[in-house]
Amino acid sequence: MRLKAALGALATFFLLATGAVHAGQPEDGRLGLQRAVTPVMENIISFHNLLLWIIGAICLFVLALLVWIVVRYNAKSNPTPKKFSHNTLIEIIWTAVPVLILVVIAVPSFRLLYMQDVIPEPDMTIKAVGNQWNWTYEYPDHGGFEFVSNMLEEEELGTQPWSQPRLLATDVPVVVPEGTTVRVQVTASDVIHSWAMPSFGVKMDGIPGRLNETWFRVNEGETGVFYGQCSEICGIRHAFMPIEVHVVPQEVFDAWVEAANADPYAASSVLAAWYESTGATAVAAAR
Ligand SMILES: [Cu+2]
Description:
Blueprint: H1 2-17, E1 22-24, H2 39-72, H3 88-117, E2 124-131, E3 134-138, E4 146-149, E5 174-177, E6 181-188, E7 193-197, E8 202-206, E9 212-217, E10 224-230, E11 243-248, H4 250-262, H5 268-278, H6 281-286
Parallel strand pairs: 1-10, 2-6, 5-11
Antiparallel strand pairs: 2-3, 3-4, 6-9, 7-8, 7-10, 10-11
Helix pairs in contact: 2-3, 4-5
The structure holds copper (II) ion.
Copper (II) ion binds at residues 130, 193, 230, 232, 234, 238, 241.
């Protein structure tokens, strides 16, 4: 298991080093969050790390106090306890210090909330509509084509040159260009769903009768395939309506858009051709 994880990490290192296409998906033996490929997710990870240090310090401090009390003030070492019940100084400290800690947390927290909430001038828009149990996507800025994206069953996997993990791969993936600000409008046709992509730092509820908005911009050079899932319990097949997003260079995206306008269900052949031309088959095999 460990060896497998180490080999996986080694493979990832070489793939990243060679600039190959990567896959954003869960990995065996992984600790922490999926690797960030958008500025928002980078900020989420650094905020998460900051909080981890703060919680760690608080836990250690409380543990040290407990140990001190157990050792120093047990019945044997402190047979006649003092009888006072107030200490103004200590009470001010244990009120003020937590307030200060919360203020320290609030600053990056609000900055991050604002970054997620305020959508920068978008280069393009995608509409994602959650259905029981698949996603409909529309590309209003690129001819208005739309398609339904369904999870692949186990026997349908392995037909494409990219990694197609069980329960995550779809028949018709979403495609976006790298380095582009994408506005995602999220809604639903029946019950509440949620469009969530871990490596983009995006999780937005799709609510029937409402149009929610979120955004992402995948960093330049982070081409590859990224997987997410519906994150709002929406019925019996909630776990089986994954999200597959391909991030490609602009010219590949343009070719895909042209093909998708003719037939969105056949446009993935453009992706397959691009993967094969970049030698990304190795990536799929290594993952
Ligand atoms: Cu759902």
